[in-house]
TrEMBL record, chain A:
It is found in: Cytoplasm. It is an enzyme of class 1 (oxidoreductase). Its EC number is 1.5.3.24. This is Sarcosine oxidase subunit beta. It comes from Nonomuraea gerenzanensis. The keyword Nucleotide-binding applies. PROSITE patterns: RHODANESE_3.
UniProtKB/TrEMBL annotation, chain B:
Pfam families: SoxD (PF04267). Its EC number is 1.5.3.1. It comes from Nonomuraea gerenzanensis. One of its GO terms (molecular function) is sarcosine oxidase activity. Gene3D superfamilies: Folate-binding superfamily. InterPro entries: SoxD, SoxD_sf. This is Sarcosine oxidase delta subunit. Keywords: Oxidoreductase. One of its GO terms (biological process) is tetrahydrofolate metabolic process. The keyword Oxidoreductase applies.
Protein backbone atom coordinates (compact mmCIF):
# COMPACT_ATOMS: atom_id res chain seq x y z
CA UNK A 1 0.00 0.00 0.00
CA UNK A 2 1.36 3.42 -0.91
CA UNK A 3 0.77 6.49 1.15
CA UNK A 4 -1.94 8.66 -0.42
CA UNK A 5 -0.82 11.91 -2.01
CA UNK A 6 -0.97 14.96 0.17
CA UNK A 7 -3.88 17.21 -0.76
CA UNK A 8 -2.07 20.46 0.03
CA UNK A 9 1.50 21.73 0.53
CA UNK A 10 2.77 22.57 3.98
CA UNK A 11 4.56 25.87 3.28
CA UNK A 12 6.43 28.20 5.60
CA UNK A 13 4.94 31.67 5.92
CA UNK A 14 6.15 34.33 3.51
CA UNK A 15 6.81 37.86 4.85
CA UNK A 16 3.70 39.44 3.31
CA UNK A 17 0.32 38.62 1.78
CA UNK A 18 -2.55 40.60 0.30
CA UNK A 19 -4.98 38.82 2.61
CA UNK A 20 -4.27 36.91 5.81
CA UNK A 21 -7.10 34.71 7.08
CA UNK A 22 -6.85 33.80 10.76
CA UNK A 23 -8.26 30.33 11.38
CA UNK A 24 -8.10 27.25 9.19
CA UNK A 25 -11.54 25.81 9.90
CA UNK A 26 -14.31 25.41 7.38
CA UNK A 27 -15.08 29.13 7.17
CA UNK A 28 -11.45 30.20 6.74
CA UNK A 29 -10.88 27.57 4.06
CA UNK A 30 -14.10 28.39 2.22
CA UNK A 31 -13.17 32.09 2.30
CA UNK A 32 -9.77 31.30 0.78
CA UNK A 33 -11.39 29.10 -1.87
CA UNK A 34 -13.84 31.82 -2.94
CA UNK A 35 -11.27 34.64 -2.74
CA UNK A 36 -9.34 32.70 -5.35
CA UNK A 37 -12.21 31.29 -7.36
CA UNK A 38 -14.60 34.25 -7.45
CA UNK A 39 -12.25 37.21 -7.11
CA UNK A 40 -8.87 36.05 -8.43
CA UNK A 41 -7.21 36.96 -5.12
CA UNK A 42 -4.58 34.29 -4.50
CA UNK A 43 -1.77 36.02 -2.59
CA UNK A 44 -3.45 34.72 0.53
CA UNK A 45 -2.40 32.85 3.67
CA UNK A 46 -4.65 30.89 6.01
CA UNK A 47 -2.98 30.80 9.45
CA UNK A 48 -4.02 27.96 11.71
CA UNK A 49 -2.66 27.59 15.22
CA UNK A 50 -3.32 23.85 15.37
CA UNK A 51 -3.80 21.55 12.43
CA UNK A 52 -6.10 22.29 9.56
CA UNK A 53 -9.80 21.96 10.42
CA UNK A 54 -9.12 20.48 13.87
CA UNK A 55 -11.48 22.90 15.65
CA UNK A 56 -15.24 22.94 15.36
CA UNK A 57 -14.94 21.81 11.77
CA UNK A 58 -13.79 18.42 13.10
CA UNK A 59 -16.25 18.36 15.99
CA UNK A 60 -19.63 19.30 14.57
CA UNK A 61 -22.55 16.99 13.85
CA UNK A 62 -22.78 18.14 10.20
CA UNK A 63 -26.46 19.02 10.06
CA UNK A 64 -27.29 21.18 7.05
CA UNK A 65 -30.58 23.03 6.58
CA UNK A 66 -31.82 26.52 5.73
CA UNK A 67 -35.22 26.73 7.46
CA UNK A 68 -34.54 29.79 9.60
CA UNK A 69 -37.29 32.23 10.51
CA UNK A 70 -36.27 35.70 9.39
CA UNK A 71 -35.77 36.88 5.81
CA UNK A 72 -32.12 37.81 6.38
CA UNK A 73 -31.28 34.36 7.74
CA UNK A 74 -33.31 32.47 5.17
CA UNK A 75 -31.44 34.35 2.45
CA UNK A 76 -27.94 33.57 3.66
CA UNK A 77 -28.59 29.98 4.77
CA UNK A 78 -30.51 29.17 1.59
CA UNK A 79 -27.68 30.65 -0.46
CA UNK A 80 -25.41 28.26 1.42
CA UNK A 81 -27.70 25.27 0.88
CA UNK A 82 -27.79 25.98 -2.86
CA UNK A 83 -23.99 26.05 -2.87
CA UNK A 84 -23.93 22.70 -1.03
CA UNK A 85 -26.09 21.26 -3.79
CA UNK A 86 -23.32 21.92 -6.30
CA UNK A 87 -20.26 21.73 -4.07
CA UNK A 88 -19.14 18.13 -4.65
CA UNK A 89 -19.07 18.87 -8.38
CA UNK A 90 -17.46 22.30 -7.94
CA UNK A 91 -14.67 20.88 -5.77
CA UNK A 92 -14.48 17.57 -7.65
CA UNK A 93 -14.63 15.68 -4.35
CA UNK A 94 -17.35 13.44 -2.93
CA UNK A 95 -18.53 15.38 0.12
CA UNK A 96 -21.10 12.69 0.95
CA UNK A 97 -23.70 15.42 0.98
CA UNK A 98 -26.92 13.57 1.68
CA UNK A 99 -30.25 15.41 1.50
CA UNK A 100 -32.09 12.93 3.66
CA UNK A 101 -34.48 15.41 5.27
CA UNK A 102 -34.39 17.22 8.63
CA UNK A 103 -37.28 16.92 11.09
CA UNK A 104 -37.75 19.44 13.91
CA UNK A 105 -40.16 17.91 16.41
CA UNK A 106 -42.87 19.81 18.27
CA UNK A 107 -43.74 18.59 21.78
CA UNK A 108 -46.11 21.26 23.01
CA UNK A 109 -48.50 23.87 21.66
CA UNK A 110 -45.83 26.55 21.67
CA UNK A 111 -43.60 24.35 19.51
CA UNK A 112 -46.52 23.65 17.15
CA UNK A 113 -47.28 27.33 16.66
CA UNK A 114 -43.64 28.22 16.25
CA UNK A 115 -43.08 25.36 13.80
CA UNK A 116 -46.10 26.17 11.63
CA UNK A 117 -45.16 29.83 11.59
CA UNK A 118 -41.66 28.93 10.48
CA UNK A 119 -42.95 26.65 7.71
CA UNK A 120 -45.02 29.54 6.37
CA UNK A 121 -42.15 32.00 6.68
CA UNK A 122 -39.83 29.56 4.90
CA UNK A 123 -42.24 29.07 2.01
CA UNK A 124 -42.62 32.82 1.55
CA UNK A 125 -38.83 32.92 1.25
CA UNK A 126 -38.68 30.11 -1.29
CA UNK A 127 -37.23 27.66 1.25
CA UNK A 128 -38.78 24.18 1.07
CA UNK A 129 -40.72 23.41 4.23
CA UNK A 130 -43.57 21.13 5.27
CA UNK A 131 -45.61 20.63 8.39
CA UNK A 132 -46.17 16.97 9.33
CA UNK A 133 -48.73 15.65 11.80
CA UNK A 134 -47.74 12.86 14.21
CA UNK A 135 -48.80 10.06 11.85
CA UNK A 136 -46.84 11.60 8.99
CA UNK A 137 -43.83 11.92 11.29
CA UNK A 138 -44.14 8.21 12.07
CA UNK A 139 -44.28 7.39 8.38
CA UNK A 140 -41.25 9.53 7.59
CA UNK A 141 -39.23 8.28 10.56
CA UNK A 142 -40.60 4.98 11.89
CA UNK A 143 -38.26 4.71 14.91
CA UNK A 144 -39.56 7.86 16.62
CA UNK A 145 -41.95 7.21 19.49
CA UNK A 146 -45.14 9.13 18.65
CA UNK A 147 -47.34 7.43 21.24
CA UNK A 148 -49.65 9.81 23.07
CA UNK A 149 -48.35 8.63 26.43
CA UNK A 150 -44.72 9.45 25.62
CA UNK A 151 -42.90 11.72 28.03
CA UNK A 152 -42.35 14.14 25.15
CA UNK A 153 -45.39 13.60 22.90
CA UNK A 154 -44.73 14.29 19.23
CA UNK A 155 -47.41 16.77 18.22
CA UNK A 156 -45.99 17.29 14.75
CA UNK A 157 -42.79 18.38 13.08
CA UNK A 158 -41.37 20.65 10.45
CA UNK A 159 -39.63 18.88 7.61
CA UNK A 160 -37.06 20.29 5.25
CA UNK A 161 -36.48 17.56 2.69
CA UNK A 162 -33.46 19.31 1.15
CA UNK A 163 -31.71 19.36 4.53
CA UNK A 164 -29.31 16.63 5.56
CA UNK A 165 -25.69 15.94 6.42
CA UNK A 166 -22.25 15.90 4.78
CA UNK A 167 -18.86 14.48 5.66
CA UNK A 168 -17.11 17.36 7.44
CA UNK A 169 -13.54 16.14 6.89
CA UNK A 170 -14.11 15.76 3.18
CA UNK A 171 -15.46 19.30 3.04
CA UNK A 172 -12.35 20.67 4.74
CA UNK A 173 -9.97 18.61 2.62
CA UNK A 174 -11.67 19.54 -0.63
CA UNK A 175 -11.70 23.26 0.18
CA UNK A 176 -8.07 23.08 1.31
CA UNK A 177 -7.03 21.29 -1.87
CA UNK A 178 -8.80 23.88 -4.00
CA UNK A 179 -7.30 26.86 -2.16
CA UNK A 180 -3.85 25.32 -2.21
CA UNK A 181 -4.20 24.59 -5.92
CA UNK A 182 -4.83 28.30 -6.50
CA UNK A 183 -1.59 29.12 -4.68
CA UNK A 184 -3.03 29.97 -1.26
CA UNK A 185 -0.58 29.13 1.57
CA UNK A 186 -2.24 27.01 4.25
CA UNK A 187 0.06 27.43 7.24
CA UNK A 188 -0.46 25.13 10.19
CA UNK A 189 1.06 25.43 13.65
CA UNK A 190 0.99 29.21 13.29
CA UNK A 191 -0.81 31.09 16.06
CA UNK A 192 -1.71 34.75 15.65
CA UNK A 193 -0.70 36.53 18.86
CA UNK A 194 -1.25 40.19 17.98
CA UNK A 195 -1.88 42.83 15.35
CA UNK A 196 0.12 45.80 14.14
CA UNK A 197 -2.23 48.70 13.68
CA UNK A 198 -1.03 52.01 12.20
CA UNK A 199 -3.39 55.02 11.89
CA UNK A 200 -6.34 52.71 12.61
CA UNK A 201 -5.35 50.33 9.80
CA UNK A 202 -4.11 46.80 10.35
CA UNK A 203 -0.78 46.30 8.55
CA UNK A 204 0.54 43.02 9.92
CA UNK A 205 -0.11 40.12 12.26
CA UNK A 206 2.31 38.86 14.86
CA UNK A 207 2.46 35.09 14.98
CA UNK A 208 4.27 32.24 16.71
CA UNK A 209 6.21 32.00 13.43
CA UNK A 210 7.11 35.67 13.12
CA UNK A 211 5.64 38.86 11.73
CA UNK A 212 3.53 38.62 8.59
CA UNK A 213 2.54 41.81 6.76
CA UNK A 214 -0.98 41.88 5.42
CA UNK A 215 -3.03 44.13 3.18
CA UNK A 216 -6.16 42.83 4.85
CA UNK A 217 -6.76 40.54 7.82
CA UNK A 218 -9.86 38.38 8.07
CA UNK A 219 -10.80 36.64 11.33
CA UNK A 220 -12.36 33.19 10.99
CA UNK A 221 -11.51 31.86 14.43
CA UNK A 222 -14.92 30.72 15.72
CA UNK A 223 -14.73 30.20 19.53
CA UNK A 224 -11.48 32.16 19.84
CA UNK A 225 -12.66 35.31 18.08
CA UNK A 226 -12.98 37.31 21.31
CA UNK A 227 -9.37 36.54 22.24
CA UNK A 228 -8.14 37.80 18.86
CA UNK A 229 -10.45 40.82 18.84
CA UNK A 230 -9.10 41.84 22.25
CA UNK A 231 -5.58 41.84 20.75
CA UNK A 232 -6.87 44.38 18.24
CA UNK A 233 -8.49 46.45 20.99
CA UNK A 234 -12.05 45.37 20.16
CA UNK A 235 -14.79 43.98 22.41
CA UNK A 236 -17.34 41.91 20.51
CA UNK A 237 -20.80 40.72 21.63
CA UNK A 238 -19.68 37.09 21.81
CA UNK A 239 -19.47 34.50 24.56
CA UNK A 240 -17.55 31.23 24.18
CA UNK A 241 -19.21 28.05 25.40
CA UNK A 242 -18.54 24.32 25.21
CA UNK A 243 -20.90 22.44 22.90
CA UNK A 244 -20.89 18.68 23.29
CA UNK A 245 -21.71 15.80 20.99
CA UNK A 246 -21.25 12.06 20.99
CA UNK A 247 -21.28 9.01 18.76
CA UNK A 248 -22.53 5.52 19.45
CA UNK A 249 -21.00 2.24 18.42
CA UNK A 250 -21.57 1.32 14.76
CA UNK A 251 -25.04 0.04 13.90
CA UNK A 252 -26.84 -1.34 10.88
CA UNK A 253 -28.88 1.35 9.10
CA UNK A 254 -31.73 2.29 11.43
CA UNK A 255 -32.32 6.01 10.94
CA UNK A 256 -32.32 7.56 7.47
CA UNK A 257 -33.15 11.17 8.31
CA UNK A 258 -32.07 13.85 10.79
CA UNK A 259 -34.29 14.34 13.85
CA UNK A 260 -33.98 17.39 16.07
CA UNK A 261 -35.90 18.54 19.09
CA UNK A 262 -35.37 22.00 20.48
CA UNK A 263 -37.58 21.46 23.47
CA UNK A 264 -35.62 18.50 24.85
CA UNK A 265 -32.20 19.61 23.59
CA UNK A 266 -31.30 16.64 21.47
CA UNK A 267 -30.76 15.80 17.84
CA UNK A 268 -29.65 12.65 16.11
CA UNK A 269 -28.65 11.30 12.73
CA UNK A 270 -26.85 8.19 11.58
CA UNK A 271 -23.49 8.69 9.90
CA UNK A 272 -22.60 6.89 6.70
CA UNK A 273 -20.32 4.57 8.66
CA UNK A 274 -23.16 3.56 11.00
CA UNK A 275 -22.66 5.41 14.26
CA UNK A 276 -25.49 7.46 15.71
CA UNK A 277 -24.37 11.07 15.98
CA UNK A 278 -26.08 12.99 18.77
CA UNK A 279 -25.67 16.47 20.10
CA UNK A 280 -26.72 18.45 23.13
CA UNK A 281 -27.23 22.08 24.02
CA UNK A 282 -24.31 24.25 25.14
CA UNK A 283 -22.87 24.05 28.64
CA UNK A 284 -24.08 27.17 30.42
CA UNK A 285 -20.76 28.71 31.45
CA UNK A 286 -18.05 30.47 29.43
CA UNK A 287 -15.19 28.16 28.59
CA UNK A 288 -12.27 27.56 26.28
CA UNK A 289 -11.62 24.13 27.82
CA UNK A 290 -12.98 22.03 24.93
CA UNK A 291 -14.85 19.80 27.36
CA UNK A 292 -18.21 19.99 29.11
CA UNK A 293 -20.15 18.42 31.95
CA UNK A 294 -21.34 14.82 31.90
CA UNK A 295 -24.74 15.88 33.25
CA UNK A 296 -25.39 17.71 29.96
CA UNK A 297 -24.76 14.50 28.01
CA UNK A 298 -26.85 12.57 30.53
CA UNK A 299 -29.86 14.86 30.10
CA UNK A 300 -29.51 14.65 26.34
CA UNK A 301 -29.39 10.83 26.38
CA UNK A 302 -32.40 10.65 28.70
CA UNK A 303 -34.41 12.70 26.21
CA UNK A 304 -33.10 10.69 23.26
CA UNK A 305 -34.26 7.44 24.86
CA UNK A 306 -37.74 8.83 25.40
CA UNK A 307 -37.92 9.69 21.71
CA UNK A 308 -36.16 6.54 20.47
CA UNK A 309 -36.79 3.67 22.88
CA UNK A 310 -35.14 1.40 20.30
CA UNK A 311 -31.74 2.97 21.15
CA UNK A 312 -31.90 1.96 24.80
CA UNK A 313 -29.11 -0.61 24.65
CA UNK A 314 -26.82 1.25 22.28
CA UNK A 315 -23.42 2.05 23.77
CA UNK A 316 -21.69 5.43 23.62
CA UNK A 317 -18.33 5.28 21.87
CA UNK A 318 -17.00 8.74 22.65
CA UNK A 319 -18.07 12.25 23.61
CA UNK A 320 -16.30 15.55 22.98
CA UNK A 321 -16.82 19.29 22.94
CA UNK A 322 -15.96 22.22 20.74
CA UNK A 323 -15.88 25.89 21.76
CA UNK A 324 -18.63 27.84 20.04
CA UNK A 325 -18.96 31.63 19.77
CA UNK A 326 -22.50 32.56 20.75
CA UNK A 327 -23.94 35.98 19.87
CA UNK A 328 -26.86 37.68 21.66
CA UNK A 329 -29.35 37.06 18.83
CA UNK A 330 -28.06 33.61 17.75
CA UNK A 331 -27.04 35.07 14.39
CA UNK A 332 -23.56 35.51 12.95
CA UNK A 333 -21.52 38.71 12.84
CA UNK A 334 -20.00 39.30 9.39
CA UNK A 335 -18.29 42.33 7.97
CA UNK A 336 -15.93 45.18 8.64
CA UNK A 337 -14.72 46.18 12.11
CA UNK A 338 -13.82 49.61 13.50
CA UNK A 339 -10.20 48.85 12.47
CA UNK A 340 -9.62 49.43 8.73
CA UNK A 341 -8.63 46.32 6.83
CA UNK A 342 -9.72 44.03 9.68
CA UNK A 343 -12.78 41.88 9.04
CA UNK A 344 -14.79 39.60 11.28
CA UNK A 345 -16.80 36.47 10.57
CA UNK A 346 -17.95 34.94 13.84
CA UNK A 347 -20.93 34.25 16.06
CA UNK A 348 -22.04 31.20 14.08
CA UNK A 349 -22.25 29.55 17.46
CA UNK A 350 -23.82 26.12 17.40
CA UNK A 351 -24.79 26.14 13.74
CA UNK A 352 -22.10 27.33 11.36
CA UNK A 353 -21.18 24.12 9.57
CA UNK A 354 -24.21 24.38 7.31
CA UNK A 355 -23.10 27.89 6.42
CA UNK A 356 -19.56 26.92 5.42
CA UNK A 357 -19.84 27.63 1.67
CA UNK A 358 -22.32 30.51 2.03
CA UNK A 359 -20.25 32.19 4.71
CA UNK A 360 -17.04 31.82 2.72
CA UNK A 361 -18.81 33.21 -0.36
CA UNK A 362 -20.12 36.40 1.26
CA UNK A 363 -17.01 36.92 3.41
CA UNK A 364 -14.67 36.66 0.42
CA UNK A 365 -16.81 39.17 -1.46
CA UNK A 366 -16.88 41.51 1.56
CA UNK A 367 -13.08 41.36 1.88
CA UNK A 368 -12.45 41.72 -1.86
CA UNK A 369 -14.60 44.86 -2.16
CA UNK A 370 -14.18 46.27 1.36
CA UNK A 371 -17.96 46.57 1.75
CA UNK A 372 -20.53 44.07 2.95
CA UNK A 373 -21.91 41.57 0.48
CA UNK A 374 -25.68 42.24 0.27
CA UNK A 375 -26.46 38.97 2.07
CA UNK A 376 -23.97 39.83 4.82
CA UNK A 377 -25.06 43.43 5.32
CA UNK A 378 -27.82 42.75 7.90
CA UNK A 379 -25.30 40.73 9.94
CA UNK A 380 -22.90 43.63 10.48
CA UNK A 381 -21.66 44.50 13.95
CA UNK A 382 -23.67 47.75 13.88
CA UNK A 383 -26.93 45.90 14.43
CA UNK A 384 -26.32 45.75 18.17
CA UNK A 385 -26.25 49.54 18.26
CA UNK A 386 -29.13 50.16 15.87
CA UNK A 387 -31.22 47.45 17.48
CA UNK A 388 -31.90 45.65 14.19
CA UNK A 389 -31.26 42.24 15.71
CA UNK A 390 -31.96 39.02 13.81
CA UNK A 391 -33.35 36.92 16.61
CA UNK A 392 -33.03 33.29 15.58
CA UNK A 393 -33.20 31.72 19.04
CA UNK A 394 -36.26 29.74 17.97
CA UNK A 395 -34.59 28.30 14.89
CA UNK A 396 -31.03 28.16 16.11
CA UNK A 397 -30.57 28.05 19.86
CA UNK A 398 -30.26 24.33 20.40
CA UNK A 399 -30.96 23.15 16.94
CA UNK A 400 -28.03 23.08 14.60
CA UNK B 1 -19.49 18.80 36.57
CA UNK B 2 -18.28 21.79 38.56
CA UNK B 3 -18.35 21.82 42.35
CA UNK B 4 -19.50 25.29 43.37
CA UNK B 5 -19.14 26.62 46.88
CA UNK B 6 -22.42 28.30 47.80
CA UNK B 7 -21.77 30.79 50.61
CA UNK B 8 -24.88 29.52 52.41
CA UNK B 9 -24.98 25.77 51.62
CA UNK B 10 -21.33 24.91 50.99
CA UNK B 11 -20.00 22.86 48.06
CA UNK B 12 -22.79 21.62 45.77
CA UNK B 13 -22.98 20.13 42.27
CA UNK B 14 -23.16 22.46 39.30
CA UNK B 15 -26.58 21.21 38.23
CA UNK B 16 -28.16 22.83 41.30
CA UNK B 17 -27.11 26.22 39.93
CA UNK B 18 -28.02 28.62 37.20
CA UNK B 19 -25.25 30.53 35.43
CA UNK B 20 -25.42 34.31 35.56
CA UNK B 21 -22.51 35.43 33.38
CA UNK B 22 -19.97 38.15 34.06
CA UNK B 23 -19.98 39.68 37.55
CA UNK B 24 -19.90 43.37 38.33
CA UNK B 25 -21.28 44.88 35.13
CA UNK B 26 -22.22 48.42 36.18
CA UNK B 27 -25.40 50.11 35.00
CA UNK B 28 -24.27 53.06 32.86
CA UNK B 29 -24.40 56.32 34.77
CA UNK B 30 -25.98 59.49 33.41
CA UNK B 31 -26.48 60.17 29.70
CA UNK B 32 -25.48 57.24 27.50
CA UNK B 33 -24.77 57.13 23.80
CA UNK B 34 -26.26 54.35 21.68
CA UNK B 35 -22.80 52.73 21.60
CA UNK B 36 -22.48 52.78 25.39
CA UNK B 37 -25.97 51.37 25.79
CA UNK B 38 -25.29 48.59 23.24
CA UNK B 39 -22.09 47.71 25.08
CA UNK B 40 -23.96 47.55 28.38
CA UNK B 41 -26.78 45.39 27.01
CA UNK B 42 -24.91 43.08 24.64
CA UNK B 43 -21.17 43.02 25.31
CA UNK B 44 -19.53 41.04 28.11
CA UNK B 45 -15.91 40.10 28.72
CA UNK B 46 -15.01 36.71 27.28
CA UNK B 47 -11.49 36.07 28.54
CA UNK B 48 -9.39 32.96 28.16
CA UNK B 49 -8.23 32.76 31.77
CA UNK B 50 -9.63 33.92 35.10
CA UNK B 51 -13.20 35.23 35.00
CA UNK B 52 -15.40 36.74 37.74
CA UNK B 53 -18.91 35.44 37.26
CA UNK B 54 -22.29 35.13 38.97
CA UNK B 55 -23.97 31.89 39.97
CA UNK B 56 -27.49 31.41 41.36
CA UNK B 57 -28.27 28.50 43.69
CA UNK B 58 -31.63 28.02 41.98
CA UNK B 59 -32.33 24.51 43.32
CA UNK B 60 -31.07 25.35 46.80
CA UNK B 61 -31.12 28.46 48.95
CA UNK B 62 -31.57 30.81 45.95
CA UNK B 63 -28.54 32.93 46.78
CA UNK B 64 -26.70 34.83 44.05
CA UNK B 65 -22.94 34.91 44.57
CA UNK B 66 -19.69 35.63 42.75
CA UNK B 67 -16.95 33.12 41.97
CA UNK B 68 -13.69 33.32 40.05
CA UNK B 69 -13.26 30.50 37.59
CA UNK B 70 -10.54 29.78 35.05
CA UNK B 71 -12.14 29.37 31.64
CA UNK B 72 -9.58 26.83 30.42
CA UNK B 73 -8.89 24.66 33.49
CA UNK B 74 -12.33 25.29 35.11
CA UNK B 75 -10.47 25.73 38.43
CA UNK B 76 -12.49 27.79 40.94
CA UNK B 77 -11.19 30.18 43.60
CA UNK B 78 -12.76 32.60 46.03
CA UNK B 79 -12.99 36.04 44.44
CA UNK B 80 -10.20 38.32 45.61
C1 LIG C 1 -20.34 19.59 19.00
C2 LIG C 1 -20.68 20.54 17.89
C3 LIG C 1 -21.72 20.24 17.03
C4 LIG C 1 -22.06 21.10 15.99
N1 LIG C 1 -23.04 20.71 15.12
C5 LIG C 1 -23.34 21.49 14.06
C6 LIG C 1 -24.29 21.04 13.10
O1 LIG C 1 -24.85 19.94 13.20
N2 LIG C 1 -24.57 21.87 12.05
C7 LIG C 1 -23.99 23.08 11.91
O2 LIG C 1 -24.32 23.79 10.98
N3 LIG C 1 -23.04 23.52 12.80
C8 LIG C 1 -22.70 22.76 13.86
N4 LIG C 1 -21.75 23.17 14.76
C9 LIG C 1 -21.16 24.51 14.62
C10 LIG C 1 -20.01 24.55 13.62
O3 LIG C 1 -19.10 23.51 13.89
C11 LIG C 1 -19.29 25.90 13.70
O4 LIG C 1 -20.20 26.97 13.66
C12 LIG C 1 -18.29 26.09 12.55
O5 LIG C 1 -17.49 24.96 12.39
C13 LIG C 1 -17.43 27.32 12.83
O6 LIG C 1 -16.61 27.68 11.75
P1 LIG C 1 -15.19 27.03 11.45
O7 LIG C 1 -15.40 25.70 10.81
O8 LIG C 1 -14.40 27.96 10.66
O9 LIG C 1 -14.60 26.86 12.93
P2 LIG C 1 -13.30 26.08 13.42
O10 LIG C 1 -13.15 24.79 12.72
O11 LIG C 1 -13.35 26.06 14.90
O12 LIG C 1 -12.14 27.03 12.89
C14 LIG C 1 -11.55 28.10 13.63
C15 LIG C 1 -10.06 27.88 13.62
O13 LIG C 1 -9.40 29.03 14.10
C16 LIG C 1 -8.22 28.58 14.72
N5 LIG C 1 -7.67 29.65 15.57
C17 LIG C 1 -8.22 30.16 16.72
N6 LIG C 1 -7.41 31.11 17.23
C18 LIG C 1 -6.35 31.22 16.39
C19 LIG C 1 -5.18 32.03 16.40
N7 LIG C 1 -4.93 32.93 17.37
N8 LIG C 1 -4.28 31.88 15.39
C20 LIG C 1 -4.51 30.97 14.40
N9 LIG C 1 -5.60 30.17 14.35
C21 LIG C 1 -6.51 30.30 15.34
C22 LIG C 1 -8.68 27.37 15.49
O14 LIG C 1 -7.60 26.54 15.86
C23 LIG C 1 -9.65 26.73 14.53
O15 LIG C 1 -9.08 25.69 13.75
C24 LIG C 1 -21.37 22.33 15.82
C25 LIG C 1 -20.32 22.64 16.68
C26 LIG C 1 -19.95 21.75 17.70
C27 LIG C 1 -18.81 22.10 18.59
ZN1 LIG D 1 -27.14 27.70 48.54
Amino acid sequence: MTHPDFLWRNPDPRPAYDVVIVGGGGHGLATAHYLANNHGITNVAVLERGWLAGGNMARNTTIIRSNYLWDESAAIYEHSLKLWEGLSAELDYDLQFSQRGVLNLAHNLGDVREGRRRVNANRLNGVDAEWLGPEEVKKFCPVVNVSGSARYPVMGATLQRRGGIAKHDHVAWALARSADGHGVDLIQGCEVTGFEITSNRVVAVRTSRGRIAAGKVALAAAGHTSVLAAQAGLRLPLQSHPLQALVSELLEPVLDCVVMSNAVHVYVSQAHKGELVMGAGIDAYNSYGQRGGVHVIEAQMAAALELFPIFSRVRVLRTWAGIVDVSPDASPIIGRTPVDGLYVNAGWGTGGFKATPGSGWVYADTIAHDRPHPLAEPFALERFTTGALIDEHGAAAVAH
Amino acid sequence: MLLLDCPHCGPRDENEFHYGGQAGVPYPAGETTDEEWAAYVFVRDNPKGWFRERWFHVHGCRTWFTVERHTVTHEIRKPG
